[in-house]
Amino acid sequence: QDGVVEGLGGQLASTTLEGTLTRSSREDSDARRSDSNMGNIGEGVGVGGESGHAWLRLKGPHEQIVSTVLERLDVAAITDLYKAIVSLHSPRVLYALTSASEKLVFFIMSSTSVANPGFLRQLSILLLNPLLADVEFHRLMATTCSMLVGLESDQREAVVHLLAAQPPAELHRLVIVLQQYITITLYQQQAITQGVEDATKSLKLLYEANDMAAAAIQATSSLASRANTLPVPYAEFYNDAVNNEDFNLKEDFRRWKSPSRSEFSFCNYPYVYDPASKARVLQMENQMAQYNELQNALFRGLFSGNQQVDLCPFLVLKVRRGAYLVQDTLIQINRAKESDTLRKPLKVKFLGEEGVDEGGVQKEFFQQLVKELFNPDYGMFTYDEAVRLHWFRASRLNMETEFELVGVLIGLAIYNSHILEFSFPLVLFKKLTGMRPCFQDIQELFPDIHQNLSKLLQMSEEAIAACGLNFTVDMECGFGEIETVDLKPGGAQINVTCENCREYVDLYTQHLLHHSIQPQYAAFERGFLRLCNGKALSWFRPQELELLACGGRQLDLEALENATIHDDGYTRDSQVVRWFWETVHAMDDEGKRRLLFFVTGSDRVPIKGLAHLNPPHVISKMGGDSDRLPTAHTCFNHLLLPAYTSKEMLQDRLRKALEYAEGFGLL
Description:
It is a single chain. The protein is α/β, with parallel strands linked by helices. It contains 25 helices and twelve strands. α1 packs antiparallel against α2 (63-72), α8 (168-189) packs antiparallel against α9 and α15 (426-432) crosses α21 (542-550).
């Protein structure tokens, strides 16, 4: 009886998939002929097939054929059939299903899009096969990925369109299946196999489809509901094995930078990297640029014969604290721009102080400079207490040099692997990555304006007319001076109505986030791109770039405690160490930030988290019981803690140390 079942199951598996070779070709050929009479299908979300399988209709050259395939494909029936075959738990049946699937793959690989018009239908059925996610049948996955990589350009475009039209859950499932294959293969083989290469390249199809679907959803959504349109979160494309600490990222970087472009590198497919891995690659790229600049400086000195050539291997900034800090920095940055030495490794010297810069002096330099430049009294940026964000001050005053300095400052910090303490809205980082601001971006920076414009979009014709609005906006052009600006030519004579309300909101958005601050932002961007124009930086999405520049705000001091190294007689079980961490965990948020600043030189969390400080956090003994305060080497994230005899004394000395933590000296 089992033999009969297995025989029927094997026949079912074989005939079902092999039958698509002829049946799908015939049906899709008929579908193409009927498509010429279908007209414009239009945009929006439709329901395809008897299964009620919701899919997205997309505009494009492959619109009609993709829509027809999805409309006529009964996904539920195909899924049930696969489940019925697999539920037989018969090796012979599963072998027959695998064999039929591989024959289908080889048929697709050997056929052109013209010879095989049923290609999209066949692929749709193939991708629903549950064996693709089964470790025992990874050969089928490898063969399928090889087929996807070898597609003709028009077939590839059609596949991206087909995938973009899938429901988010289906797109997400396919991402998980590919990620599972890449991860397991890397762990098992401990090498980048051809299958891993092909799977990574196939993942790019899903990544592009994800972006295409998000753009289509956003285009058909109202202005007020365009947030979170991404079907699959970008984080789902991060691969666990590639981002594991054991993965040889330096070797991957070497292959990427190798003159021989035949070598595979994940750097060419950066969507698999998480922000921490991207930051590591960016750091390696910057270190390479710094090394090249060092060599160039030496060669210029040796062979130019010019006595004025700067032979110093570092960009050394000698500055005074307080009111002179911005002026000193501005003069020396301009000098470095003119001599093209900004790309040298940075060293900072506070005049009158003995501190040697091994990283910690730079940290405080950036902290103090940010305080000065972002002070509202300085006139460059506004600060809204309600949202706790800075923004460019719209003004007719010429401060391009100062704004360019701020851009260079942020670029210099990223280039030298430092994080800055300032609070810009996410839209700034969208603009830096080339994205156009949208209405939703106003909400973070101007919540009241966003709320009012959202209400405007919902108003009736009579209510809008009662507001008496036209296509103008009042703009501050100086300190307290107000000027009325047209949002479009002749805007003062154009009233806002129901028909042009969305245009008004869009133009208002572009005015607030772009046109009104264009001179200031253009100078800022110019300064930023002087240093931050490498290939690796282009991998960062706005949220990741913000995290890279500003660090995180979520403190996880338990992670820091678990990663701490103890030295000079201390262990994690030493009484003083236990008192220290008990005191730290009892602090409020402000106290914890003070401690982090005291030890590391910054109160922000680096992109990799506190468990991965570089160098790692160290607590070492600084003599026996004494009245001395704890001290820190911020260059090395190193805390020197005396062996106090009571918890009360430790708390008192630590509190005083945190209160007076500024300046550098030699012990």
